Amino acid sequence: MTDPAHVAPRTALVVTVSDRAAAGRREDRSGQVVADRLAGLGFAVERAVVPDDRDAIEAALRAGAARHGLVLTTGGTGLTPRDVTPQATLAVVDYEVPGMAEAMRAEGRRQTPLAALSRAVVGVRDRSLIVNLPGSPSGASESLEAIVDVLPHALETLAGPFDHGARAGSAGAAGSPEAAATLHPLHGEGRG
Q: Is the terminal CB of the chain with fewer CB neighbours within 10 Å at N or C?
């Protein structure tokens, strides 16, 4: 049996996407709200701030996904030409998880019809979940709450093994982690 005191904490990176916050002209309240909530859920949280620049966002997402099982962005999901977080996210993820983005928008619409304008994306890169949250503290908080209940299972699933039977203790080669990796390979090669 594993001693809970020796289990590594789940880690997360919160990336605030904001020209003004990156320049030090605005306090990063959204990033703080998200980081505080994650810490309350038991995550060890790192934070970063980048400008509304697609290359900078992509670099932060790649670096974050290489080190953390969960990467959340806040900001840059609206309709202005500088709102490029979804494009940057789509450029680095292997595949999307549209149900989570839909759940966030549905919860947001309960608060304001303007939530329908969010272009937030949720996707997977290697074994990391990347989640775009709105830039306002309330929007970021509400969107995160909309997916909090499914985060543990999503992160557990991504951590592997990738065969549900293997996790449940099924016997035989088909239930082995090696077989699961063979049946469901990660496509980590060749991404820019």
A: N
